[in-house]
Amino acid sequence: MKDRSLQLKVVKADGTVEEYLHTKVLGTIANAFAGTGQDTTFVAEQLADAITFYLYGTHQADGQVSTSEIYFMIQAMLTATGHDEASLVLNNYHFTRALTRKRTEVVDSFLGENPQSWNKSLITFALVRQGVEMSSARTIAGMVEEKILRMALNRVPKRLIAELVEVEKHNILQACSQLEAAEEMEYKTTPDKDVQGGQEETKGFLAKAG
Fold this sequence. Notes:
- The chain has helices spanning 22-34, 41-58, 67-80, 84-103, 120-129, 134-151, 158-189, 193-209, and strands at residues 9-11, 17-19, 64-66, 105-107, 116-117, 155-157.
- By secondary structure, the protein is mainly α.
- It folds into 2 domains: 1-103, no CATH class; 105-190, no CATH class.
- It is globular, with a radius of gyration of 24 Å.
């Protein structure tokens, strides 16, 4: 296996950089197979492993890979291994999503004033300026975009976007807070081995003394 001590970075379409996640590649392939009605979890795992191995091997020098390269790599891998139907599902999803984004405009109100192209990154950057961590900001922006695109509105009022952002922001930050609290509670309730060992020794000594 290639040395993965250096974390591979992904350059997004908006120019920002985030850590490469193997699970995202696996999820993309699994969803493509799911679109064909096939249950091929094992195959998806094998293909994802091969792609991650290849990307780490070919980008050791710069440590970066673009989202488009990852996408085309997945497409090529599916086609090369005879999974043309899954490749077609992925291609159709990618094309449809890109087209929907292009057709979606942001306006001041439902009257349609000042139309602007939809740009998920604007939500991400706005949240970061508010103090939200980049990873959480991306998640929130992604969830908002998913809801907006599912609405199939050609023109989306800024007020609606703002309301959706606040809802998702509340949900994500609350989930993060609950997770941190649960981890802290688990840490506090986990017996310290040294203390536990000392208690056992004391019990043993008292038993002998009795």
